[in-house]
Amino acid sequence: MKKPLTVLTSLLLLPACQTTRTVTLVGMTDYHSHAVPFYSEGAPGQGGVARALAYLRDAKARPDTLVVSGGDTLNKGVPTWSDEYGCVEWPWFNGVLDVMALGNHDLDYGPESFERCRASAAYPVLCANLEGADGAPYLRVEGKPYLVKEVGGVRVGFFSVAGLDMQRLVKAEHLPAGTRWTDATEAAQAVVRALRDEEHVDAVVLLGHQLREDDEALARAVPGIDIIMGSHSHQKVELGVLPGTSTWYLSPYQYLAYLSEVRLRFRGKRLEGVEGGLVKLDGTRREDEETAAEVARLQRDLVAKRPERFEVLGRLDKPLGDEGLTEGPAEVGTWATEVWRRAAGAHAFFALSASFRGGLPAGEVTVEDFLGAIPYRNFLVTAELTGAQLADWVALSESKRGTDSYSQYSGVHYEVEDGRPVRLRVLKDPTNPAAGDEPVTPEATYRVATLDFQAFVATGYKDALSRAANVRRTELNAHTLLMDSLRQGAVNSASGQLHSK
Protein backbone atom coordinates (compact mmCIF):
# COMPACT_ATOMS: atom_id res chain seq x y z
CA MET A 1 0.00 0.00 0.00
CA LYS A 2 2.87 2.38 0.71
CA LYS A 3 4.45 2.23 -2.77
CA PRO A 4 1.37 3.42 -4.74
CA LEU A 5 0.88 6.22 -2.22
CA THR A 6 4.48 7.37 -2.79
CA VAL A 7 3.99 7.34 -6.56
CA LEU A 8 0.70 9.24 -6.27
CA THR A 9 2.31 11.87 -4.04
CA SER A 10 5.16 12.36 -6.54
CA LEU A 11 2.69 12.75 -9.39
CA LEU A 12 0.71 15.34 -7.45
CA LEU A 13 3.86 17.33 -6.68
CA LEU A 14 5.28 17.23 -10.23
CA PRO A 15 2.96 19.79 -11.86
CA ALA A 16 3.54 22.29 -9.03
CA CYS A 17 7.31 22.01 -9.50
CA GLN A 18 6.89 22.69 -13.19
CA THR A 19 4.51 25.62 -12.86
CA THR A 20 5.56 28.51 -15.07
CA ARG A 21 5.03 32.03 -13.70
CA THR A 22 5.84 35.42 -15.18
CA VAL A 23 6.75 38.50 -13.15
CA THR A 24 6.80 41.82 -15.02
CA LEU A 25 9.05 44.73 -14.06
CA VAL A 26 8.18 48.17 -15.43
CA GLY A 27 10.82 50.82 -14.81
CA MET A 28 11.41 54.54 -15.12
CA THR A 29 14.59 56.49 -14.47
CA ASP A 30 16.28 59.87 -14.86
CA TYR A 31 13.03 61.83 -14.97
CA HIS A 32 14.80 65.07 -13.97
CA SER A 33 11.53 66.96 -13.38
CA HIS A 34 10.46 66.85 -17.05
CA ALA A 35 6.78 67.00 -16.20
CA VAL A 36 5.80 68.62 -19.49
CA PRO A 37 6.13 66.71 -22.81
CA PHE A 38 9.27 67.81 -24.64
CA TYR A 39 11.25 67.65 -27.89
CA SER A 40 13.27 64.46 -28.19
CA GLU A 41 14.85 62.42 -30.99
CA GLY A 42 13.52 64.76 -33.65
CA ALA A 43 9.92 64.83 -32.45
CA PRO A 44 7.95 67.17 -30.16
CA GLY A 45 5.53 66.09 -27.45
CA GLN A 46 7.51 63.14 -26.10
CA GLY A 47 7.26 61.82 -22.55
CA GLY A 48 5.53 63.82 -19.84
CA VAL A 49 4.63 62.67 -16.36
CA ALA A 50 0.90 62.39 -17.14
CA ARG A 51 1.61 59.94 -19.96
CA ALA A 52 4.02 57.94 -17.80
CA LEU A 53 1.59 57.72 -14.89
CA ALA A 54 -1.19 56.48 -17.17
CA TYR A 55 1.02 53.69 -18.46
CA LEU A 56 2.42 52.78 -15.03
CA ARG A 57 -1.02 52.68 -13.40
CA ASP A 58 -2.31 50.39 -16.13
CA ALA A 59 0.76 48.19 -15.66
CA LYS A 60 0.36 48.12 -11.91
CA ALA A 61 -3.21 46.88 -12.32
CA ARG A 62 -1.97 43.78 -14.13
CA PRO A 63 -1.21 40.65 -12.10
CA ASP A 64 2.32 40.01 -10.88
CA THR A 65 3.70 43.40 -11.95
CA LEU A 66 6.17 45.57 -10.05
CA VAL A 67 7.01 49.20 -10.87
CA VAL A 68 10.46 50.58 -10.08
CA SER A 69 12.50 53.78 -10.48
CA GLY A 70 16.22 54.30 -11.01
CA GLY A 71 16.13 57.73 -9.35
CA ASP A 72 17.16 61.23 -10.45
CA THR A 73 13.67 62.64 -10.18
CA LEU A 74 14.92 66.20 -9.61
CA ASN A 75 17.33 68.51 -11.44
CA LYS A 76 18.35 71.79 -9.87
CA GLY A 77 18.34 74.67 -12.34
CA VAL A 78 16.85 72.85 -15.34
CA PRO A 79 13.98 72.64 -15.95
CA THR A 80 12.56 75.58 -14.01
CA TRP A 81 9.83 73.22 -12.79
CA SER A 82 12.36 71.56 -10.50
CA ASP A 83 13.39 74.78 -8.76
CA GLU A 84 9.81 75.95 -8.33
CA TYR A 85 8.00 72.72 -7.46
CA GLY A 86 10.72 70.42 -6.13
CA CYS A 87 9.41 66.90 -5.61
CA VAL A 88 5.72 67.72 -6.03
CA GLU A 89 5.42 64.57 -8.19
CA TRP A 90 6.77 62.12 -5.61
CA PRO A 91 3.39 61.50 -3.95
CA TRP A 92 1.75 61.22 -7.37
CA PHE A 93 3.52 57.86 -7.64
CA ASN A 94 2.20 56.55 -4.32
CA GLY A 95 0.41 53.28 -4.93
CA VAL A 96 2.26 52.92 -8.24
CA LEU A 97 5.99 52.71 -7.46
CA ASP A 98 7.19 49.78 -5.39
CA VAL A 99 10.75 51.03 -4.89
CA MET A 100 13.13 53.77 -6.04
CA ALA A 101 16.91 54.06 -6.24
CA LEU A 102 18.60 57.16 -4.87
CA GLY A 103 19.99 59.30 -7.70
CA ASN A 104 22.57 62.04 -7.38
CA HIS A 105 20.09 64.75 -8.40
CA ASP A 106 17.65 63.65 -5.72
CA LEU A 107 20.08 65.37 -3.32
CA ASP A 108 20.37 68.58 -5.38
CA TYR A 109 18.52 70.70 -2.84
CA GLY A 110 20.24 69.35 0.26
CA PRO A 111 19.43 66.83 2.99
CA GLU A 112 16.45 68.61 4.54
CA SER A 113 14.68 68.87 1.20
CA PHE A 114 15.48 65.24 0.46
CA GLU A 115 13.99 64.09 3.75
CA ARG A 116 10.81 66.08 3.09
CA CYS A 117 10.54 64.45 -0.31
CA ARG A 118 11.12 61.00 1.13
CA ALA A 119 8.44 61.60 3.77
CA SER A 120 5.92 62.35 1.00
CA ALA A 121 6.55 58.99 -0.69
CA ALA A 122 4.91 55.73 0.34
CA TYR A 123 7.62 53.74 -1.47
CA PRO A 124 11.16 53.17 -0.14
CA VAL A 125 14.28 54.85 -1.50
CA LEU A 126 17.38 52.63 -1.54
CA CYS A 127 21.16 53.01 -1.72
CA ALA A 128 23.22 50.20 -0.20
CA ASN A 129 26.51 52.11 -0.04
CA LEU A 130 25.38 55.31 1.68
CA GLU A 131 26.40 54.62 5.26
CA GLY A 132 24.86 56.40 8.25
CA ALA A 133 26.57 57.65 11.39
CA ASP A 134 25.73 54.33 13.07
CA GLY A 135 27.78 52.42 10.49
CA ALA A 136 24.68 50.85 8.92
CA PRO A 137 23.17 51.72 5.51
CA TYR A 138 21.32 55.03 5.84
CA LEU A 139 18.43 54.03 3.56
CA ARG A 140 16.82 50.81 4.74
CA VAL A 141 13.59 48.82 4.56
CA GLU A 142 12.87 47.18 7.90
CA GLY A 143 16.51 47.57 8.79
CA LYS A 144 17.83 46.13 5.52
CA PRO A 145 19.47 47.90 2.55
CA TYR A 146 17.27 46.09 0.04
CA LEU A 147 13.65 45.26 -0.67
CA VAL A 148 12.17 41.81 -1.21
CA LYS A 149 8.80 41.58 -2.97
CA GLU A 150 6.86 38.35 -3.36
CA VAL A 151 4.54 38.19 -6.36
CA GLY A 152 2.99 35.19 -8.00
CA GLY A 153 4.78 32.89 -5.59
CA VAL A 154 8.16 34.32 -6.65
CA ARG A 155 10.55 36.33 -4.47
CA VAL A 156 12.40 39.21 -6.17
CA GLY A 157 15.12 41.22 -4.42
CA PHE A 158 15.85 44.86 -5.32
CA PHE A 159 18.82 47.02 -4.37
CA SER A 160 20.72 50.11 -5.48
CA VAL A 161 24.25 51.45 -5.21
CA ALA A 162 25.83 54.84 -5.92
CA GLY A 163 28.62 54.51 -8.45
CA LEU A 164 31.83 56.52 -8.36
CA ASP A 165 30.48 59.13 -10.77
CA MET A 166 27.41 59.71 -8.60
CA GLN A 167 29.59 59.98 -5.50
CA ARG A 168 31.76 62.59 -7.21
CA LEU A 169 28.78 64.63 -8.38
CA VAL A 170 26.97 64.93 -5.03
CA LYS A 171 28.27 67.85 -2.97
CA ALA A 172 29.34 66.89 0.54
CA GLU A 173 27.00 69.46 2.08
CA HIS A 174 24.05 67.86 0.29
CA LEU A 175 24.50 64.52 2.03
CA PRO A 176 22.45 63.73 5.15
CA ALA A 177 24.41 64.56 8.31
CA GLY A 178 26.88 61.88 9.37
CA THR A 179 26.61 59.84 6.15
CA ARG A 180 29.44 58.74 3.90
CA TRP A 181 29.90 56.68 0.77
CA THR A 182 31.31 53.17 0.95
CA ASP A 183 32.63 50.98 -1.84
CA ALA A 184 29.84 50.12 -4.29
CA THR A 185 31.23 46.71 -5.24
CA GLU A 186 31.68 45.60 -1.63
CA ALA A 187 28.17 46.81 -0.77
CA ALA A 188 26.72 44.95 -3.78
CA GLN A 189 28.54 41.75 -2.83
CA ALA A 190 27.12 41.89 0.69
CA VAL A 191 23.58 42.62 -0.52
CA VAL A 192 23.56 39.90 -3.18
CA ARG A 193 24.91 37.40 -0.67
CA ALA A 194 22.15 38.31 1.80
CA LEU A 195 19.44 38.18 -0.85
CA ARG A 196 20.57 34.79 -2.12
CA ASP A 197 21.62 33.04 1.10
CA GLU A 198 19.34 34.59 3.72
CA GLU A 199 16.29 35.83 1.83
CA HIS A 200 16.36 32.98 -0.71
CA VAL A 201 15.11 35.21 -3.50
CA ASP A 202 14.51 33.81 -6.96
CA ALA A 203 15.85 36.86 -8.81
CA VAL A 204 18.08 39.85 -7.96
CA VAL A 205 17.54 43.25 -9.62
CA LEU A 206 19.90 46.25 -9.47
CA LEU A 207 18.03 49.53 -9.96
CA GLY A 208 20.96 51.95 -10.26
CA HIS A 209 22.49 54.49 -9.92
CA GLN A 210 25.76 54.48 -11.85
CA LEU A 211 27.35 54.75 -15.27
CA ARG A 212 26.78 51.93 -17.74
CA GLU A 213 30.47 50.98 -17.73
CA ASP A 214 30.32 50.71 -13.93
CA ASP A 215 27.19 48.55 -14.21
CA GLU A 216 29.08 46.24 -16.56
CA ALA A 217 32.08 46.06 -14.22
CA LEU A 218 29.80 45.34 -11.26
CA ALA A 219 28.02 42.55 -13.12
CA ARG A 220 31.40 40.91 -13.77
CA ALA A 221 32.58 41.41 -10.18
CA VAL A 222 29.37 40.33 -8.42
CA PRO A 223 27.80 37.12 -9.78
CA GLY A 224 24.15 36.66 -8.93
CA ILE A 225 22.66 39.89 -10.32
CA ASP A 226 20.03 38.79 -12.81
CA ILE A 227 18.94 42.16 -14.21
CA ILE A 228 20.31 45.71 -14.14
CA MET A 229 17.76 48.42 -14.85
CA GLY A 230 20.21 50.94 -16.31
CA SER A 231 20.23 54.52 -15.09
CA HIS A 232 22.41 57.65 -14.79
CA SER A 233 24.07 57.36 -18.22
CA HIS A 234 20.89 58.49 -20.03
CA GLN A 235 21.45 55.82 -22.65
CA LYS A 236 18.83 54.10 -24.76
CA VAL A 237 19.72 50.41 -24.65
CA GLU A 238 17.41 47.54 -25.54
CA LEU A 239 17.37 44.38 -23.44
CA GLY A 240 20.42 42.15 -23.77
CA VAL A 241 23.01 40.21 -21.78
CA LEU A 242 26.11 42.13 -20.71
CA PRO A 243 29.28 40.71 -22.32
CA GLY A 244 31.10 38.20 -20.18
CA THR A 245 28.22 37.86 -17.70
CA SER A 246 24.82 36.23 -17.30
CA THR A 247 23.28 39.57 -16.28
CA TRP A 248 20.56 41.16 -18.40
CA TYR A 249 20.64 44.93 -18.96
CA LEU A 250 18.46 47.63 -20.47
CA SER A 251 18.27 51.41 -20.13
CA PRO A 252 15.26 53.61 -21.07
CA TYR A 253 17.07 56.79 -22.16
CA GLN A 254 15.90 59.81 -20.15
CA TYR A 255 13.09 62.11 -18.98
CA LEU A 256 10.35 59.46 -19.41
CA ALA A 257 10.72 59.44 -23.18
CA TYR A 258 10.82 55.66 -22.65
CA LEU A 259 10.03 53.16 -19.94
CA SER A 260 11.54 49.71 -19.42
CA GLU A 261 9.37 46.61 -19.40
CA VAL A 262 10.90 43.22 -18.60
CA ARG A 263 9.15 39.90 -18.17
CA LEU A 264 10.85 37.31 -15.97
CA ARG A 265 9.73 33.76 -16.65
CA PHE A 266 10.15 31.26 -13.82
CA ARG A 267 9.67 27.51 -13.83
CA GLY A 268 9.04 26.78 -10.21
CA LYS A 269 11.66 28.93 -8.46
CA ARG A 270 14.12 28.90 -11.33
CA LEU A 271 14.53 31.97 -13.56
CA GLU A 272 14.23 30.40 -16.98
CA GLY A 273 13.86 33.30 -19.36
CA VAL A 274 13.96 37.09 -19.67
CA GLU A 275 12.28 39.10 -22.41
CA GLY A 276 10.99 42.60 -23.01
CA GLY A 277 12.41 45.97 -24.02
CA LEU A 278 11.72 49.69 -24.10
CA VAL A 279 8.31 51.33 -24.31
CA LYS A 280 8.24 54.65 -26.19
CA LEU A 281 6.00 57.28 -24.58
CA ASP A 282 5.02 59.34 -27.60
CA GLY A 283 1.77 60.97 -28.65
CA THR A 284 0.10 57.62 -29.29
CA ARG A 285 0.07 56.96 -25.53
CA ARG A 286 -2.79 58.34 -23.48
CA GLU A 287 -2.28 60.74 -20.58
CA ASP A 288 -3.75 60.43 -17.12
CA GLU A 289 -6.36 63.19 -17.32
CA GLU A 290 -6.18 64.36 -13.72
CA THR A 291 -2.38 64.52 -13.78
CA ALA A 292 -2.35 66.29 -17.15
CA ALA A 293 -4.72 68.96 -15.83
CA GLU A 294 -2.56 69.53 -12.76
CA VAL A 295 0.61 69.72 -14.85
CA ALA A 296 -1.04 72.27 -17.18
CA ARG A 297 -2.14 74.40 -14.21
CA LEU A 298 1.30 74.37 -12.60
CA GLN A 299 3.02 75.09 -15.92
CA ARG A 300 0.78 78.13 -16.57
CA ASP A 301 1.69 79.47 -13.13
CA LEU A 302 5.35 78.82 -13.81
CA VAL A 303 5.36 80.71 -17.12
CA ALA A 304 3.69 83.67 -15.42
CA LYS A 305 6.15 83.66 -12.55
CA ARG A 306 9.37 83.06 -14.55
CA PRO A 307 8.79 84.69 -17.96
CA GLU A 308 12.52 85.13 -18.54
CA ARG A 309 12.90 81.36 -18.85
CA PHE A 310 10.37 81.29 -21.66
CA GLU A 311 11.90 84.15 -23.64
CA VAL A 312 12.43 83.28 -27.31
CA LEU A 313 16.13 83.17 -28.18
CA GLY A 314 15.73 82.59 -31.90
CA ARG A 315 14.04 80.58 -34.55
CA LEU A 316 15.22 77.48 -36.44
CA ASP A 317 13.82 76.59 -39.84
CA LYS A 318 14.78 72.96 -39.17
CA PRO A 319 15.61 71.18 -35.92
CA LEU A 320 19.09 70.51 -34.57
CA GLY A 321 18.79 66.80 -33.86
CA ASP A 322 20.37 64.83 -31.05
CA GLU A 323 20.22 61.44 -32.75
CA GLY A 324 23.37 59.38 -32.33
CA LEU A 325 25.07 61.63 -29.78
CA THR A 326 27.15 58.81 -28.33
CA GLU A 327 27.88 57.13 -31.66
CA GLY A 328 29.10 59.96 -33.89
CA PRO A 329 28.56 63.62 -34.79
CA ALA A 330 25.02 64.82 -34.02
CA GLU A 331 23.59 68.07 -35.40
CA VAL A 332 23.28 69.78 -32.03
CA GLY A 333 26.80 68.72 -31.07
CA THR A 334 28.33 69.80 -34.37
CA TRP A 335 26.69 73.23 -34.10
CA ALA A 336 27.67 73.82 -30.48
CA THR A 337 31.29 72.69 -30.80
CA GLU A 338 31.77 74.87 -33.89
CA VAL A 339 30.43 77.93 -32.04
CA TRP A 340 32.77 77.18 -29.15
CA ARG A 341 35.74 76.42 -31.42
CA ARG A 342 35.45 79.76 -33.18
CA ALA A 343 35.12 81.63 -29.88
CA ALA A 344 38.21 79.88 -28.49
CA GLY A 345 40.22 80.41 -31.67
CA ALA A 346 41.10 76.72 -31.60
CA HIS A 347 42.05 74.26 -34.28
CA ALA A 348 39.69 71.72 -32.70
CA PHE A 349 37.01 71.59 -30.02
CA PHE A 350 35.69 68.59 -28.09
CA ALA A 351 32.68 68.26 -25.78
CA LEU A 352 31.42 65.17 -23.99
CA SER A 353 28.20 63.75 -25.35
CA ALA A 354 26.96 64.02 -21.75
CA SER A 355 27.07 67.81 -22.21
CA PHE A 356 23.99 67.46 -24.42
CA ARG A 357 20.65 66.15 -23.18
CA GLY A 358 18.55 66.75 -26.26
CA GLY A 359 18.21 68.57 -29.54
CA LEU A 360 16.57 71.88 -30.43
CA PRO A 361 13.17 71.96 -32.18
CA ALA A 362 12.27 73.73 -35.36
CA GLY A 363 10.51 77.05 -34.87
CA GLU A 364 10.89 79.27 -31.84
CA VAL A 365 13.56 78.20 -29.35
CA THR A 366 13.07 79.46 -25.80
CA VAL A 367 15.59 79.67 -22.98
CA GLU A 368 13.89 76.67 -21.41
CA ASP A 369 14.19 74.70 -24.68
CA PHE A 370 17.86 75.57 -24.88
CA LEU A 371 18.67 74.68 -21.27
CA GLY A 372 16.75 71.44 -21.62
CA ALA A 373 19.05 70.46 -24.48
CA ILE A 374 22.31 71.81 -23.01
CA PRO A 375 21.71 72.10 -19.25
CA TYR A 376 25.18 72.19 -17.74
CA ARG A 377 27.07 75.40 -17.10
CA ASN A 378 30.67 75.35 -18.29
CA PHE A 379 33.49 77.65 -19.32
CA LEU A 380 35.83 77.05 -22.23
CA VAL A 381 39.33 75.71 -21.59
CA THR A 382 42.16 76.03 -24.10
CA ALA A 383 45.45 74.14 -24.30
CA GLU A 384 48.31 73.43 -26.66
CA LEU A 385 48.68 69.82 -27.78
CA THR A 386 51.24 68.24 -30.03
CA GLY A 387 49.91 66.35 -33.01
CA ALA A 388 50.72 63.10 -31.21
CA GLN A 389 48.76 64.24 -28.14
CA LEU A 390 45.84 65.34 -30.31
CA ALA A 391 45.80 61.90 -31.94
CA ASP A 392 45.80 60.28 -28.50
CA TRP A 393 42.90 62.52 -27.41
CA VAL A 394 40.84 61.52 -30.45
CA ALA A 395 41.69 57.85 -29.85
CA LEU A 396 40.53 58.21 -26.23
CA SER A 397 37.22 59.65 -27.43
CA GLU A 398 36.76 56.83 -29.94
CA SER A 399 37.40 54.27 -27.19
CA LYS A 400 34.37 55.80 -25.42
CA ARG A 401 32.06 55.48 -28.43
CA GLY A 402 28.62 54.31 -27.30
CA THR A 403 28.90 56.04 -23.91
CA ASP A 404 28.35 59.52 -22.51
CA SER A 405 32.12 60.00 -22.51
CA TYR A 406 32.33 59.99 -26.31
CA SER A 407 33.11 63.49 -27.65
CA GLN A 408 31.21 65.63 -30.06
CA TYR A 409 33.78 67.65 -32.00
CA SER A 410 34.58 70.34 -34.53
CA GLY A 411 37.73 71.19 -36.47
CA VAL A 412 38.97 67.62 -36.99
CA HIS A 413 38.06 64.93 -39.47
CA TYR A 414 38.99 61.26 -39.40
CA GLU A 415 37.84 57.77 -40.29
CA VAL A 416 37.55 54.76 -38.01
CA GLU A 417 39.08 51.36 -38.72
CA ASP A 418 38.95 48.51 -36.19
CA GLY A 419 37.74 50.94 -33.55
CA ARG A 420 40.63 53.39 -33.94
CA PRO A 421 40.78 56.76 -35.71
CA VAL A 422 42.87 56.91 -38.87
CA ARG A 423 43.74 59.63 -41.41
CA LEU A 424 43.29 62.36 -38.81
CA ARG A 425 43.07 65.87 -40.26
CA VAL A 426 42.74 69.26 -38.59
CA LEU A 427 41.97 72.81 -39.73
CA LYS A 428 44.87 74.64 -41.32
CA ASP A 429 43.77 78.00 -39.96
CA PRO A 430 41.35 78.25 -36.96
CA THR A 431 40.33 81.76 -38.06
CA ASN A 432 39.52 80.69 -41.62
CA PRO A 433 37.72 77.30 -41.86
CA ALA A 434 37.29 77.88 -45.59
CA ALA A 435 41.03 77.28 -45.97
CA GLY A 436 40.35 73.59 -45.38
CA ASP A 437 42.19 71.02 -43.33
CA GLU A 438 45.45 69.08 -43.45
CA PRO A 439 46.92 65.89 -41.98
CA VAL A 440 47.93 66.13 -38.34
CA THR A 441 51.70 66.27 -37.91
CA PRO A 442 52.89 64.53 -34.71
CA GLU A 443 55.52 67.18 -33.86
CA ALA A 444 53.35 70.22 -34.67
CA THR A 445 51.49 72.19 -32.00
CA TYR A 446 47.73 72.73 -32.15
CA ARG A 447 45.41 74.89 -30.09
CA VAL A 448 42.68 72.60 -28.73
CA ALA A 449 39.70 73.56 -26.57
CA THR A 450 37.07 71.81 -24.50
CA LEU A 451 34.63 72.45 -21.64
CA ASP A 452 35.97 72.76 -18.11
CA PHE A 453 34.19 69.61 -16.87
CA GLN A 454 35.87 67.53 -19.56
CA ALA A 455 39.19 69.26 -18.95
CA PHE A 456 39.38 68.88 -15.19
CA VAL A 457 36.91 66.18 -14.09
CA ALA A 458 36.15 63.63 -16.84
CA THR A 459 38.01 60.35 -16.44
CA GLY A 460 40.82 59.94 -18.97
CA TYR A 461 40.50 63.40 -20.46
CA LYS A 462 41.72 65.26 -17.38
CA ASP A 463 44.83 63.07 -17.33
CA ALA A 464 45.42 63.66 -21.03
CA LEU A 465 45.09 67.42 -20.63
CA SER A 466 47.44 67.44 -17.64
CA ARG A 467 50.24 66.64 -20.11
CA ALA A 468 49.34 69.53 -22.43
CA ALA A 469 51.00 72.95 -22.48
CA ASN A 470 49.46 76.33 -21.60
CA VAL A 471 46.19 74.93 -20.20
CA ARG A 472 43.93 77.89 -19.45
CA ARG A 473 40.38 78.20 -18.17
CA THR A 474 38.94 81.17 -20.06
CA GLU A 475 36.10 83.48 -19.12
CA LEU A 476 34.12 82.35 -22.17
CA ASN A 477 30.74 81.10 -20.93
CA ALA A 478 29.53 78.13 -22.98
CA HIS A 479 25.85 78.96 -22.54
CA THR A 480 26.24 82.63 -23.40
CA LEU A 481 28.07 81.84 -26.62
CA LEU A 482 25.36 79.47 -27.85
CA MET A 483 22.50 81.72 -26.81
CA ASP A 484 24.10 84.63 -28.67
CA SER A 485 24.43 82.43 -31.76
CA LEU A 486 20.70 81.68 -31.62
CA ARG A 487 19.81 85.34 -31.06
CA GLN A 488 21.90 86.35 -34.06
CA GLY A 489 20.18 83.77 -36.25
CA ALA A 490 23.55 82.45 -37.38
CA VAL A 491 22.55 78.79 -37.42
CA ASN A 492 22.24 76.66 -40.54
CA SER A 493 19.92 74.16 -38.90
CA ALA A 494 19.89 71.80 -41.85
CA SER A 495 23.54 70.90 -41.27
CA GLY A 496 24.13 72.02 -37.70
CA GLN A 497 26.83 74.45 -38.92
CA LEU A 498 27.05 78.23 -38.80
CA HIS A 499 26.55 80.69 -41.59
CA SER A 500 27.50 84.32 -41.84
CA LYS A 501 24.84 86.99 -41.46
Automatic annotation (TrEMBL):
Keywords annotated in UniProt:
Hydrolase, Nucleotide-binding, Signal
Looking at the keywords, is Signal present? yes
Q: Which residues form the 5'-Nucleotidase C-terminal domain?
A: 327-461
The lineage's top-level taxon is Bacteria
Instruction: Show the InterPro entries listed in the entry.
Output: 5'-Nucleotdase_C, 5'-Nucleotdase_C_sf, 5_nucleotidase/apyrase, Calcineurin-like_PHP, Metallo-depent_PP-like
Q: Name one Pfam family in it.
A: 5_nucleotid_C
Query: What is the name of this protein?
Result: Bifunctional UDP-sugar hydrolase/5'-nucleotidase
Organism this protein belongs to: Archangium lansingense
